[in-house]
Design brief:
269 residues; alpha+beta; OB fold (Dihydrolipoamide Acetyltransferase, E2P); five-stranded antiparallel β-sheet; 25% helix; disordered N terminus; disordered C terminus
């Protein structure tokens, strides 16, 4: 399926990119992901379809698009840079204002999302009869998928035409996306102020068997039974940190800390 673009006609092949496997069509056909996201940007009057990859990549790019549209910018909102079309990897030249970044395939990254759009919508309708509505977590919808759904809903509210399509035996089927009103109907979850979720952005010396860590540029917290060397390695690996913030005697501690790389599971919380 070619890229539809009313403003740019030239397409550059990326022969040196590690994702370019056009010389092995049988391998590309086997690995080509079955889902595609199509976004018509209202400012650029163009349409692009991108391969869907890991939750982290999808959230980052759809979040950029939401920010751009909310600010009514005329520039492009980056939803990808390298698109898979007809089994070949090509570069979309229209996204020139942002670095060209590839959407990396994720293992079954949209299985829960597709389930959300089909089965769980009927469950949500049935929840109106319940005394205690179910949250999205009770419906087994990860926070990362909810964030993606919110991003796509806001894109549509801002005027973009957004569709999610699934390739079934060579035929594209459009999947229903929930509206902002659908998502508003979900019960809101109270956030625990002591819950810590973020990126490891700083490490400091505390003692022989403990260290200080900074999560997403926040206040330093002490992590016990961890050396500075171990924490520094986690930071260099780009780890995500989860845990509970506890204050004792005016000192902040991070209890039940877990350090997770993207390769260990992406954004599922």
């Amino acid at each position: 399926m070619p890229i539809t673009d009313s403003s740019v006609t030239a397409i550059h092949k990326i022969s040196s990119d590690p994702l370019d496997q056009s010389h092995h069509p049988e391998q590309v056909a086997a690995e080509d992901p079955p889902y595609s996201l199509v976004v018509h940007h209202p400012h650029l009057e163009r349409e692009s379809r991108g391969r869907l990859g890991t939750d982290e990549e999808i959230l980052r790019f759809s979040g950029k698009a939401v920010s751009s549209l909310a600010a009514e910018k005329a520039g492009p909102a980056l939803l990808g840079g390298i698109f898979s079309t007809d089994g070949r990897y090509e570069q979309d030249l229209c996204w020139a204002d942002e670095p060209q970044v590839a959407l990396i395939e994720g293992e079954s990254s949209l299985e829960v999302l597709i389930s959300t759009l089909s089965e769980n919508r009927r469950q949500l309708a049935a929840n109106a009869l319940l005394d205690e509505p179910l949250s999205h977590r009770a419906l087994h919808i990860p926070d990362s998928r909810m964030a993606l759904l919110w991003n796509l809903a806001h894109l549509r509210e801002a005027g973009a035409r957004v569709t999610l399509r699934c390739n079934v035996d060579g035929t594209e089927i459009e999947l229903p996306l929930p509206s902002k009103d659908d998502l508003d109907a979900l019960p809101k979850l109270a956030k625990d102020p002591n819950q810590v979720i973020g990126q490891l952005t700083g490490v400091g010396i505390q003692g022989a068997t403990s260290c200080r860590v900074e999560v997403t540029r926040g206040k330093p917290m002490i992590v016990e039974d961890m050396t500075v060397a171990d924490a520094a390695k986690y930071m260099l690996d780009g780890c995500r940190v989860t845990g509970t913030k506890v204050e004792e005697g005016g000192v902040l501690y991070l209890r039940d800390a877990a350090f997770e790389t993207n390769a260990q599971g992406g954004l599922d919380l």
